[in-house]
Amino acid sequence: MRAAGVLLDTGPLVALLSRDDANHDRARRLFAQCAAPLRTCEAVVAEACFLMRKVHAAGPAEVVALARRGIYGIAIAAGAQWPAVEELLRKYASRPVSLADACLIRCAELFEEPRVLTFDSDFDVYRWGRKRRFEVLSG
User: Fold this and answer.
1) Which of 16, 19, 48, 115 is the most exposed place for a label (fewest CB within 10 A)?
2) Cα(105)–Cα(119) distance, rounded to whole angstroms?
3) Does the reported pTM lie above 0.85?
4) Are strands 127-128 and 115-117 parallel, antiparallel or unpaired?
5) What is the C-alpha separation between 33 and 38, in angstroms, rounded?
6) Residues 114-126: pLDDT tens digits?
């Protein structure tokens, strides 16, 4: 059975698209275990486009093409969540928390979805809904 309601972080998205990435096969296996569409945020897409541009010129278009094909969707508009995202960035300021991480934590809170497809070990520390742990799908 394929897991539904999974949040998507940058690392697996980039690894899926980049055949030269050390985690490419791992990302393929993980995506195959998840039901589309995965939920993500604009910050993850921006990070993935930036990193894929370093891989090749068409990399950012490939990131967007996955969304167009329904592999993932934008779950929240960050602008509508500024107070909560700011609070999360302050809460985890001692960690290398990014805007993308904070937005994914907020997605978990809004949709009550604890599963996240990530290679980021900080999701073992982050909590959503105050004390709830993430179920990290990292293969």
Assistant:
1) 19
2) 15
3) yes
4) unpaired
5) 11
6) 999 999 999 999 9
Return the SS3 of 49: helix
Which DSSP letter does residue 81 get? G
How many CA atoms lie less than 13 Å away from 62 in the CB half-sphere?
18
* DSSP state for residue 138 in the 8-state scheme: -
**Does an H or E element contain 135, and which?**
strand 135-137
Question: Among 115, 117, 101, 122, which residue's Cα sits nearest to residue 26?
Answer: 117
| DSSP designation for 4 | P
Report residue 55 as tokens.
């891989």
Q: Show me where the domains of the chain are located.
A: 7-126
Task: Name the nearest CA neighbour of 8 among 115, 124, 129, 133.
Answer: 115
Q: Could you give the 3-state DSSP secondary structure of residue 74?
A: strand
Q: Are β-strands 72-76 and 38-41 bridged in parallel, bridged antiparallel, or unpaired?
A: parallel
Numbers of helices and strands, H then E, in the chain:
6, 7
